[in-house]
Amino acid sequence: MLDRFRSVYRLEILDGVVYLKHGNPPHGFVAAVSDVARLHGIKRGQIECLGRGRSARLRFSKDFPERGRQAIRNVWTPPTTPPPSGGRRVRG
C-alpha cells in the first residue's frame, strides 16, 4: 500500500547529536531539536516530517520518549505553502 504522505525531511539523533539525513528543515527547528534532546537526555531516535499539499505531520521512531515528542511538537511549525492560484475566476 502506498503512503499518503511523502517525506519532506528526516533528522536522526545519535549520541545526543542531531544529524540531517535528507531534506531541508528550518534551521531554527534543527537547533530546537538539539536543545530538546539535550534537556530530556535523548541519545537516540529519528524524526521525520511527512507532508502532502498543505498538511504535514511529524513521525517519531518507536524508541523516542513521549516527553521529548511533545516538546518537539511544541517548537515545530508545519511548513507552509502558497495558496492555490488557479480557478475559473482567476483566469478571467
Describe this structure in words.
There is one protein chain. The protein has one domain (6-79). The chain is 30% helix and 33% strand. The chain is built from 3 helices and 4 strands, in the order E-E-H-E-E-H-H. Helix 1 runs antiparallel to helix 2. The longest helix has 14 residues, at 27-40. The protein is elongated and about 55 Å long. It starts with 5 loop residues before the first strand and ends with a helix. The mean pLDDT is 85.
Instruction: Please report which band the strand proportion falls in: under 5%, 5-15%, 15-25%, 25-35%, 35-45% or over 45%.
Output: 25-35%
Helix content: 25-40%
- Uncertain segments: none
Q: How many distinct folded domains? A: 1
Number of strands: 4
Averaged pLDDT = 85
Structural class: alpha+beta
Principal-axis shape equals: elongated
Give the end-to-end Cα distance, rounded to a whole number of Å: 41 Å
Radius of gyration: 16 Å
Strand numbers in spatial order across the main sheet: 2-1-3-4
H/E element order? EEHEEHH
How is the main sheet built?
A: 4 strands, antiparallel
Q: Please give the count of helices.
A: 3
List strands and helices in order, with pairings.
Elements lengths: L5 E9 L2 E6 L4 H14 L3 E9 L2 E6 L5 H10 L12 H4 L1
Antiparallel strand pairs: 1-2, 1-3, 3-4
Helix pairs in contact: 1-2
Brief write-up:
The chain is α+β, with helices and mostly antiparallel strands and 92 residues long.
